[in-house]
């Protein structure tokens, strides 16, 4: 649950502070922010759609790899947004890729729950929802403190680091069960 919470904390720290990042670091105005956020939203929708189909295919092949790859990709994108030269086109592409990657996250964690505790899936899902809600609040609140102290770049660096830590935690500590055969 801690690894799942870290994934969502990292994502929501990023997502909550994307507008200030785009305004202050990328230097886009209201129209640019709206366009990039539209790209993020469309990519997230596609990622969620693909998360259910492509992500489902990925989960069938290797749930564990899917659970590692998505936060690893998102963490790398967060760090890239900090390290690469900020241009509207580059940042828009990285933000859209982030949205696409996040779409598979809920599918992977829900699948992990149903495979790990199939007899207690409802209770475990409630625990996951609680962890996600806490992670949303934590990402936004801690992101706010970081933003106040250092700005949007520091929030994205922290978000990327949290997601890379989550990927490492999954790699080291999360075990998956194969899909049960009928």
TrEMBL record:
Membrane topology: Multi-pass membrane protein
Protein name per its UniProtKB record: Major facilitator superfamily (MFS) profile domain-containing protein
Compartments, as annotated in UniProt: Cell membrane
Membrane spanning stretches: 25-51, 63-83, 95-114, 126-147, 153-174
Domain Major facilitator superfamily (MFS) profile: 1-178
Keyword set, alphabetical order: Cell membrane, Membrane, Transmembrane, Transmembrane helix
A GO CC term attached to the entry: plasma membrane
InterPro entries with a match to the protein in the record: MFS, MFS_dom, MFS_Efflux_Transporters, MFS_trans_sf
Major localization listed first in the record, in broad terms: membrane
GO molecular function, one term: transmembrane transporter activity
